[in-house]
Amino acid sequence: MNKTLSRWEKLTVLSLALFLAVGLINVGIGNVNVQANNTAQTLPFSQNWTNVGLITANDDWSNVPGIVGFLGNYDTVGAPTNVDARSLLTPFVTNDIDVIANQTMPDTVATGGVAEFEIANPTIALNGSGTADAPHIVLYLNTTGQSNIRVSYNARDIDGSIDNSVQQIITQYRVGSTGDFINVAGGYIADASTGPSLATLVTPVAVTLPAAANNQPVIEVRILTTNAGGNDEWIGIDDISVTTAATAAPSRTNIDFNADGRSDYVITRDAGLLTTWWVAINGSNNFSTTQWGLATDIETPADFDGDGRTDFAVWRDEPTNPNKANFYILRSLNNTFQLEQFGRTGDNPRIVGDYDGDGKADLAVYRAGVGGGLSILLYRPSTIPGSDFIPQPFGLTGDVAVAGDYDGDGRHDLCVRRNVGGRNQFIILRSSDSNDQYVEWGLVGDVIVPGDYDGDGRNDFCVVRAVNGQLIWYILEADGGGTGAAAIDWGLPGDIATPGDYDGDGRQDIAVWRPSANPDTNFFYVRRSSNNVLQTFEWGFQGDYPTANWYVR
């Protein structure tokens, strides 16, 4: 935690008074010249900082198109340290434009904030401090007529001093120039630094913004670090590139009907033979109803058309023909009906997902083996139009399929839960290298609620167990972290797990829906991962089904 004062605190009282009296946007006081160029840039857009003439004076970004650096001094009283960067979603009321120009020695610059380093491979860099709580840069982009916006950069440890901090980096975005930011899936680095006395680590970041960022006159992308404990290290944000990707990124948000990166509150209600979906858009007063499917169908909501929005979808086996089943999908992209014959009676369709990495959910079923034989995954890749299916034998009779992206390569992996002496053994067939991975977590009677709870782009292992009148959540993160013995109490027996990212921070929240005989007290209870605060929403009646539970096993 560097305690060196920022340049703002070194200004004389006379200079500060002059600044306030004149009230200019661009002010020159001594060597302080606050200027910025926040004109939204069209795509493709890039910046690699090799032109050291772009930044020649402190706090002057006027020659840098579409990028501005900020001090992030949001706490003017204290000096918070080790704040989870993913929890900082609101715009900062106090946020000075900032850059320390013409620096050549990252090891010796002790003032926090944003700096420009004219080293062998020039770059700008971020460093937290007691007066730079969350230094960051903002990219101002115009995506009009564009879709599948791809943002990439290299996070470079350029600080070879004896400092050895844990320097987080988070990538966030928002539509327009007001409102909260949203964490981008895959855009979080837990520690972009090495040390002490090391400056070699380069961590590439490549993310695709949610569909809400498509075709917008102004998109802001914020790349941010926070003030670490001890002395922070300089992390370069280099080789910035914003392009239009050939395909959309997989929609990782469960039950997101408007592509804003937040899960919505959805229940289904049977009336006779028909099923109606009741959708309440998170963060708004908007709700809608759509009749889709029959009471006997299995719900399989997912993004089948790649527009970033969840599609209404069900799977129906044919009682008169056990060798025939169909997916019925209402495509949100163009509001058209898609009918696909796939599977047969007894198959499990709750494993639909993006198995080929093109940003679209693929039709899939898991077929249990017979008499101790091999089970099999059958899926139809959307990248091969007209194909029948691809078979993947995996698992044994009695295994439970729990699909998801466990290796973070953007493609669904096949995972099964196996009973080994009353304990869960998860076996994953990784799509990244076709190798098997074995993980033991939980007991056979636990409810399995997989999802990305830490925002690293990989499915984590989560089981829920009723203990002494409470629901206890046990999470094992893919990187080995998690709740461990410090399990999380959330919910009561009888509650239904409704996993999703309700606060839009890129991490799955712990959530349940509690049915009640009182029609006014059927609540969603969400534990927001951004701040661990309770979020409630009243929706539905007893007897309804919360759609977010569709893949829970």
Q: How large, in whole angstroms, is the Cα Rg?
A: 25 Å
Biggest sheet character: 7 strands, mixed
Low-confidence parts: 1-32
Content of β-strand: 35-45%
How many individual β-strands?
38
Key phrases:
553 residues; mainly beta; 7-stranded mixed sheet; 6-stranded mixed sheet; 3% helix; disordered N terminus
List the helices and strands and how they pair.
Layout: H1 7-10, H2 13-22, E1 28-29, E2 32-33, E3 41-42, E4 45-47, E5 67-70, E6 100-103, E7 113-117, E8 123-127, E9 136-142, E10 149-157, E11 169-175, E12 182-189, E13 202-208, E14 219-224, E15 235-244, E16 265-271, E17 274-280, E18 287-294, E19 298-299, E20 312-318, E21 321-331, E22 336-341, E23 363-367, E24 374-380, E25 390-396, E26 400-401, E27 414-420, E28 423-429, E29 436-443, E30 447-448, E31 461-467, E32 470-476, E33 488-489, E34 496-497, E35 510-514, E36 523-527, E37 534-538, E38 545-546
Parallel strand pairs: 3-9, 6-7
Antiparallel strand pairs: 1-2, 4-15, 5-9, 7-8, 8-15, 9-14, 10-13, 10-15, 11-12, 11-14, 16-17, 16-38, 17-18, 19-20, 20-21, 21-22, 23-24, 24-25, 26-27, 27-28, 28-29, 30-31, 31-32, 32-33, 34-35, 35-36, 36-37
Question: What does this protein structure show overall?
Answer:
The protein is mainly β and 553 residues long. It is built from two helices and 38 strands. The chain has helices at 7-10, 13-22; strands at 28-29, 32-33, 41-42, 45-47, 67-70, 100-103, 113-117, 123-127, 136-142, 149-157, 169-175, 182-189, 202-208, 219-224, 235-244, 265-271, 274-280, 287-294, 298-299, 312-318, 321-331, 336-341, 363-367, 374-380, 390-396, 400-401, 414-420, 423-429, 436-443, 447-448, 461-467, 470-476, 488-489, 496-497, 510-514, 523-527, 534-538, 545-546. The strands form nine sheets. Strands 4, 6, 7, 8, 10, 13 and 15 form a seven-stranded mixed beta sheet that branches. Strands 3, 5, 9, 11, 12 and 14 form a six-stranded mixed beta sheet that branches. It has a four-stranded antiparallel beta sheet with strand order 18-17-16-38, with no helix packed on it. A hairpin with a 6-residue loop joins strand 11 and strand 12 (182-189). The protein is elongated. The two termini are 45 Å apart.
